[in-house]
Amino acid sequence: MSRLVTTSVVGSHAFPGWLFLGDAAATRGDLGADDKQELIHDAITVAVEDQQRAGVDVITDGEMSRLDFNLGFYQHFENIEPVAAGRQLGAPAHDQRGRYRMLGEISAPRGLGAVDDFLYLKGIARTDVKACLPGPFTLSGRLIPDDRYPDRMAITEALIPIVRAECEALIAEGADFLQIDEPSFSVYPDRIGEYVDIFNRTVEGLDAKIATHLCFGNYRARAVGRRRYGPLFPMAMEMRVDQFVLEFASREFAELDLIAEIGRDREVAIGVVDVKNLWIEQVEEIVARIESALKLVPPEKLTVVPDCGFSQTARWAAVRKLQAMVEAARVVRTRLAG
Questions:
Q1: 201-228 residue pLDDT tens
Q2: DSSP states of 14-25 as a string?
Q3: Half-sphere exposure of residue 314: CA atoms within 13 angstroms, side-chain side
Q4: Taking the complete model, does pTM exceed 0.85, yes or no?
Q5: Which top CATH class is 6-336?
Q6: What is the DSSP string of 265-312?
Q7: How many CA atoms lie within 13 A of 151 on its CB side?
């Protein structure tokens, strides 16, 4: 029996403060391999318990091993080296993220690290879980083109089999719900037809429920792109996905009408709390947001989530926002039951 108004998260959870201390210690070389694994497992446990205590229906590992939405994945690639951002000073923003120079054919022979985190998650979760990965186009954004890979699309093509292999490995270990995050589609919407093809080739034939998260960036709690989904639709409906995961709360629910089209034959997860704001939404306000969405899609096709991951949010705020979101969903379910 399907749930009515499922609660979930987009991917990352807020990091415990001590995880940053552990990461700094690892950078100095003060931690061994076993120490690092224990650090990450402890952080995943914290993220899982925060979600479960809040009552979230479908949880993740909190993306604790990444220390950012996608930057942690690059440690698994071979033949790349970091390049410092050109702007180090001033207000924090997307242009301060590091990039990578390629030294040869890009590969990840030992995978992208998501399988180990998923196995640990599966072992401690008491509710449903999903595994999250950045898609190949979004991953390509931190890699600098060269003679071998002359532009971003060429890099993306090289990443498709790497991301797909990680998806297959996750499925082999029991993952039946995969979320492929492609925020860069929304940031650079001019080639949506090509993006759809890239995505579909990445997930073709995968035996799992597939979701995709489309947003506008959240590095240092700042958006990086023009915050409109309109340019992606209706072409985005050609994506082979079972669920679209979209950002609405930070945009005062602009473009909510788009979910009516999605809800005809897909599920939709809508952001009902703003991860870029420390203000804690009131339960009744979230209830009103959910009920506005239910005018457009049936409750069995609706999931409510934070706008984006909580990696850039203080943990105390993330926990309170999750609690308010779950309570609001409970109120709506009670009303639906009469």
A1: 999 999 999 999 999 988 888 888 889 9
A2: PPPHHHHHHHHH
A3: 7
A4: yes
A5: alpha beta
A6: TSEEEEEEE-TT--SPPPHHHHHHHHHHHHTTS-GGGEEEEESS-STT
A7: 1
